[in-house]
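ok so i was messing around last nite and threw this chain in just to see what happens. nothing serious, just curious
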Amino acid sequence: MSDEAARELGAENEAQLGRLRRVLASSAGFQLVILEIPESALRAAVVARVLGWSGVDGVPVLEHVVVAPDATLEDALGPRSHGVVLEGLDGARTTDATVERAFGSLNWQRDRLRREIGGPLVLVLSARGVAKLFERAPDLATWRAHSCRISAVLGASGDVEREYATFFADQPDPLDLDAAEAALSATEAKGAPHDALARAWLAAARARRRAGDLAGRDEALAAAERHVAAGVAPDTAADAIILRTIEDVDHGRGTEARGRIGELDALSRDGASSFAAAWASFLRAVIALQERHWHEAVPLARDAIRLADQHGVSTLREATRSALISAWMGLEDFEAAYTIAVELVALASGTIGRARALRQRANVNSARGRLDLALDDLEAALGLVVAEPGATKIRADLARQFAWLAAQAAASGGAADRNDAATAASIAAAGAAAADGGAALAREAPPARRGKP
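result:
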């Protein structure tokens, strides 16, 4: 790492790396080390620096191993007579299911790794990866000899949009968000391009929104809009309009939202933005749903699905179908709603996304009078999120809904059997244990109902 790049790290990060080097130099044989660093341009530089210590001043020889998304741990990490710096377990482009399998394999193979790796095993992880390590590989995690956390240091690469967007997408904790936004403000002062800065602030606004920090979201969005006003690419302008319109819709400000949707229409007509039309139809459908105009919402939602699929707007694949389900439910056409719900479950991505889709199908099945299928969907959804970090609210909501629906089924003498009450109690206990950090219960699946294997 150059002297200039080293200065960008900051004193605390330099101290962290100094301690890491001393730990590696004092190691004899296998030991587990966690190197936590956000997925940003800085990660490659820090990993290169650690690899530069290999075989120097007492540090064991270190080999860099990157696990490809489609590779197994056995393929990537066979016997080694030296140490390993392991990356790729939790990449931003790696699916949740792949990440869970990778960390599960780490836990099951911990004894093999200790036997077959002749030096330190340095796991390079994001905050997401560290959470998964403790969730899916708790036994291995107890073996850690040292943890090194490199805080976000942004603005060094010159690629403002990529660097900040990658960081903000990684669900950073609030302190890292504050530090990143301070660095972004400093980058603004250096005169970076307005388009890149606008996109970086939009990514920050979305991160604040995910964290439930509405004041921080508004500040970041206002910063983005200042750069939009100075002149940016049409897609960037559309992105800012969309985010502000979502806030208007969330707060029931229909008049303001419709005005902004008109701006999206203009960008779409000019051919300037490829996704503006899909978002415009979707937002109109949402407003119609809020106002309970079900007949109006159906064609709008259908059009939004068509445009989202046509233009490859992945962020709308699930949302547009959810809107159409809500419209059909409002019209009490439960069979039409069920058809779309099945499609939604098939395409939903991410653990929480799949759980939400299953919950939506459960709602439709409940309305269809199929309480047995609804309970199956809720049980499957709970199985996905029972130990998922950041899923406390949906886990509690699902547990309450399952218990209520199980009671309804029992009272009506329907298809659900007496095991549902035990399942509901087990799910509630497992969810509470997961929220409290009880790894043992969190790893237990709820008991099967109706004699399922």
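not much to say yet. Confidence is low (pLDDT under 50) at residues 1-7, 430-453.
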